[in-house]
Amino acid sequence: MPKELIKPYENQPGTRKEQVTRMFNAIADKYDFLNHFLSFNTDVRWRRKLVKTVKRLNASSGIPMTDVSILDMATGTGDMAFALSGLNPGSITGIDISEEMLKVAVRKSEQKAKSNIVFQLGDSEAINFEDEHFDFVTVAFGVRNYEDLGKGISEMHRVLKKGGSLLILEFSQPSGFMGFAYSFYSKRILPLMARIFSADPRAYQYLPESIYAFPFGEKMCRILLDAGFKSSTYKKLSGGIASLYVSEK
Ligand SMILES: C[S@@+](CC[C@H](N)C(=O)[O-])C[C@H]1O[C@@H](n2cnc3c(N)ncnc32)[C@H](O)[C@@H]1O
Questions:
Q1: Cβ–ligand 1 contact at 78 (below 6 Å)
Q2: Which run of H or of E encompasses 3?
Q3: For 3-248, CATH number?
Q4: What is the residue with the minimal CA distance to atom 4 of ligand 1?
Q5: For the chain, which residues make up each domain, given as ranges?
C-alpha cells in the first residue's frame, strides 16, 4: 500500500474511505473548535490566502465575479466555502462525504444567512457534475484524505473549464528548525491536546501520520502536471507547514 494510504484506524475493518468518513462523522461537532484552537487560528489566514489567489486569478481572466462558479471539494464544515463567499461569486457548491460535517456546514450557513452556497453529499473521486462545469475548484486539507489521490485529481481536472484553476491547500513538511518544532508539536503536543478535548483522539494521531506520508512541494506539482494540468506552482505558507498549490487547466 502506498505510504499516503495510511488508514485512520489501521487494525479495524473498512476501506480507507469508509474509515475517513467515520472519523469525520465522529469529530464533526468539535472539528471547528479544535481546528482553530490547535492551529492557533492560522488555518483562517491560510484559507484567506487561497481566497486572495482566486480573486487575483479571476481578475486576470476578465470574467465578472458574479458569473464565476466555484466547487469546494471536501468542504467539511464549510469554512473554505464561507471564506470564498466573501468574493460574491455566482455560485459555490460544497461537497463532502461526511454527512455530519455537512450538517455543521448547513447549520452555520443558516446562521450566517449565506444563500450563494449549496452543500451536498458527494465523493471527490466520482464528482457528480458534467465535464468543464466550474471556473475554480478548491480543496482545503482534503486531498490528503482521499482514498485514491490520482482519481480525485483527475476528477477535479475533469469538472474544471478550460482555463480554470484548481487550488489545493494542504499540510506539507517544513524543514530546518521549523521542521523540528513542527514535528514536536504535531507528534507530541497535538495528540495530547486531542486526547483531552476530542471524542476521537485517534483522529489527531492520524493527522501527523497522514501529513508525513503525503507528497508535497515539487512532488505534488509533478502529480498535478501528470494528471493533465497545463501548469502547477506552489507557495509555502508559515515556513512550509502548509502549501498552496495552483494548477491551471
Ligand atoms: C480536514 S477536513 C477539511 C474540511 C474543510 N475543507 C476545511 O478547510 O476545514 C477534510 C474533509 O475531507 C472530507 N473527505 C475526505 N475524503 C473525501 C472524498 N473522497 N470526497 C469528499 N470529501 C472527502 C472529509 O469528510 C472531511 O470533511
A1: no
A2: none
A3: 3.40.50.150
A4: 76
A5: 3-248
